[in-house]
Each structure stands twice: as C-alpha cells, then as structure tokens.
Amino acid sequence: MQGKFITIEGIEGVGKSTNIDFIASYLKSHNINLITTREPGGTELAEKIREILLNPQKEDVPEIAELLLFFAARSFHLSNVIKPALAEGKYVVCDRFTDATVAYQGSGRGFNIDRINLIANWVHKNLKPDVTILLDAPAELGMERAKKRGSKDRMESEQMSFYRRVRKGYLNLAKNEPERFAIIDATQSLAKVQKEIKKHLENLVNE
Fold it and tell me: Kind and range of the H or E element at 35?
C-alpha cells in the first residue's frame, strides 16, 4: 500500500514546526504510521549539505551551487527516506520540498522556473505531495516572528524584498495547483490555523 506524502510550506516565521507537530499528533491519534522529516536534510549526508546551505560560510555559495545543493540533498532524502517510507505505506510529513526551491530559488533568486522544474523532473519525476499545506503570512510579519527565535541562518538573512518575492512565488504555485495546495492564513490564532489544517487532514485520511 502506498503511503501519503504531506508537505508544509511557507516563508520564515509562519509556524511550520509547531504545526508539523500538530499534524503528526493528529495522524498518530488515527493510528497512522508516519515519519516526520525536513528539507534540506532528512539523512546523514543531506544534513551535511544542510549545514553548507544554512550556516554562514567563509566561502561564498554561488546561487547556482545553492540550487544544485538543494536538489542533491533532495536526492539523498528521496532515495533513502521518502520513497522507502511511502512504499511501506507510511505517511511522510515533510517540512518543505520542491515547492520551496521554486519559491526561493525561482521567485526569490530569479532562476528560470522551467529549468528548476526540469531538474525536479530528473530528480523525482512524477512524485508530488498528496497535499501541500501552505502557511501564508506577509513577509514583514513572518520575519518579525523569525527574529524572536534568535540568530539568523544564511537563508534568513536576505532583504525583505526577497521574502516578498518568495511569498508571491508560493501563492502562484498554489493558484496553479489548487487541488493540491491548502492555503492557511497564518496570521490567525494558532487554534484557528490548526482547525483549518485538521479539516484538510480529515479529507486526506478519509479518501
């Protein structure tokens, strides 16, 4: 039995980590076998690539290298974690996936999105999430929340205009695939956010 693939997307400060915990608890309460994971990362080697991507480096990371490193980490993650778990019938709950690359490196950095999709097709072909929960908030609010977490990583140190473009990229993705995306207003109270998430999870579990 093939499992279900759930991804959680959004800019910094929208509450992905908190709501991933909520999603996992909900699924466990329905006796669903699942794993939670993240991108970049999820395997030993992919986590090493994460360190390069997110930690400030003495050596500049060219934008093309950044893009390819994200997909290199994703290849490890897919082959060694995501695909085996799905094949075992498990639900996979993942903090970001290829939509993040399209939003950040495509809309944010300005890479040609058709080329990003070409690489994505090479790396994972037709595999897409069953549902993508997009936690949406204005860039200003998200980054203000992110500041409260402490020191910034490399991807949290861009200009505000970058995060505005990323948010717009996410919303464009959701507009183009409304059957897959569930847009949740992350400016609401946590209780309201999780009530909406629960509704989408119920639809997925009851398919």
Answer: strand 34-38
